[in-house]
Design goal:
The complex is a heterodimer of chains A (about 280) and B (about 100). Chain A has 2 domains: about 25-70 and about 165-275, Cytochrome c-like domain (Cytochrome Bc1 Complex, Chain D, domain 2); about 75-155, Orthogonal Bundle (Cytochrome Bc1 Complex, Chain D, domain 2), CATH 1.10.760. Chain A is built from 10 helices and 7 strands. Chain A has helices at about 1-40, 55-70, 75-85, 95, 120-130, 140-155, 170-180, 190-200, 230-240, 255-265; strands at about 110, 115-120, 205, 205-210, 220-225, 230, 275. In chain A, the strands form 3 sheets. In chain A, strands 6-5-7 form a 3-stranded mixed sheet. A two-stranded antiparallel ribbon of chain A has the order 1-2. In chain A, a hairpin with a 4-residue loop joins strand 5 and strand 6. Chain A is globular. Chain B is mostly helical and about 100 residues long. Chain B has a domain at about 25-85. Chain B is built from 4 helices and no strands. Chain B has helices at about 1-20, 25-40, 50-60, 65-90. In chain B, helix 1 (about 1-20) runs antiparallel to helix 4. The two termini of chain B are about 30 Å apart. Classes of the chains: A mainly alpha (about 280), B mainly alpha (about 100).
């Protein structure tokens, strides 16, 4: 009798746990939104797409002046030219990226059922190139950043629409990204969440620590310290290096999963890339 | 039983450090490199460790045994701490999840 009961109850428990896991990303997103709402009661959640400039009026004024002559404009123009150039087999990026191309940034990163991994837009671009007989681009190089700047610009105003499908591999990737976000690394013993949750809004030297909502909406970014447009994963590398951790490779599985988690947290927020940052 | 195993495994790096202090710089460096590789494999390497290892090797090559030992000891300490961080964080991160 007991054995029969346990045979019935265990599958039910597993189903219940699975159901919780499936609902988890949305629960995480709602909890994070509630946290920032409470932490910054006077600031609309959607304003966090502007990062630290949503939290500091003086810095926002300086930033808006910089945006009068956006330093990323050259990258957008360069990206538009590259986007229109036919690939080696005569096809185009538009053929490869689907009907809505180039307005596709809102759907990336996405879970790829064929590989069982998270596919970023940069990876998709390189897949398109390789399928057309072209060499893949350097993920940290200016050619990729220009293409991404153009696609981001065309996708402005769209709302982030990331899905975590009912596939254990997708949910594992999401959970892995979440774990990365909350895990302390480096000699300084910092997690992403140390700055962007625990100490959010405080000043770290001269910088205001931004909220994680909207962290992925404005990439690629022209950073004054880089003196060029660069991708989100370059920022991940920089963050890890700043806490004296050995950074991972751009587009490594862990960074892609982190991007997946962060982008899901920004679901429903407006895309506003490319952008400029200090 | 489990608690005992955990306690012993936590004390192990400290005992190894004590042993390393009695070893020469070459042995200490080998141990530091091994532990550093283990931390790297768990994506928890510290960027300070490899330069210390390289500096220690350079000091050894230059015949400066005392400096080599001091640098190797520091390399070992940072490698051990990075691996300990990796082990601790396997569970610790969950307590930081917002809304948990």
């Amino acid at each position: 009798m007991l054995r029969t009961f346990s045979h019935r109850i265990y599958p039910a428990l597993i189903l219940a746990v699975s159901a919780t896991a499936i609902a988890s990303p949305e629960e995480d997103r709602n909890a994070l939104r509630a946290f920032y709402e409470q932490r910054f009661p006077g600031i609309e959640l959607d304003a966090h797409v502007d990062g630290a400039y949503a939290l500091d009026a003086d810095k926002r004024d300086q930033w808006l002046e910089m945006e009068d002559f956006p330093p990323y404009e050259i990258a957008i123009d360069d990206g538009a030219d590259r986007y229109d150039e036919p690939l080696a087999d005569g096809s185009s990026y538009a053929d490869c990226l689907g009907n809505e191309a180039p307005v596709v940034k809102q759907y990336y990163p996405r879970f790829d059922p064929a590989s069982g991994e998270i596919e970023t837009l940069e990876q998709r671009i390189n897949s398109c190139r390789e399928a057309a007989g072209e060499e893949p681009l350097d993920y940290l190089g200016s050619e990729m950043s220009s293409l991404m700047a153009f696609i981001a610009y065309e996708s402005r105003g769209e709302r982030v629409a990331i899905e975590v499908p009912d596939d254990p591999r997708a949910q594992a990737a999401y959970e892995d990204g979440k774990e990365f976000f909350y895990t302390r690394r480096g000699q300084l013993n910092f997690a992403c969440s140390s700055c962007h949750v625990t100490m959010v809004g405080n000043a770290l030297r001269a910088e205001r620590l931004s909220a994680s909502l909207g962290h992925t909406t404005h990439w690629p970014v022209y950073r004054l310290k880089w003196k060029e447009v660069g991708p989100l994963h370059k920022r991940f590398i920089e963050c890890n290096s700043q806490v004296r951790a050995v950074p991972l490779e751009a587009q490594s599985e862990s960074y892609r999963n982190l991007e997946y988690f962060l982008t899901y947290m920004s679901n429903g927020m407006e895309l506003n890339g490319p952008a400029s940052r200090k | 039983m489990m608690k005992t195993v955990i306690r012993i495994s936590l004390l192990l790096p400290l005992s190894l450090s004590a042993l390393a202090a009695q070893a020469g710089p070459a042995e200490t460096l080998e141990r530091a490199s091994t532990i550093y590789e283990q931390a790297l494999a768990q994506e928890h390497g510290w960027s300070v460790t490899e330069p210390l290892i390289e500096e220690a090797r350079a000091a050894m090559a230059a015949g400066d045994e005392d400096r080599a030992q001091a640098l190797a000891d520091r390399a070992l300490l940072t490698a051990e701490q990075s691996l300990k961080q990796a082990q601790d964080e396997k569970d610790a991160w969950q307590a930081r999840v917002v809304g948990r």
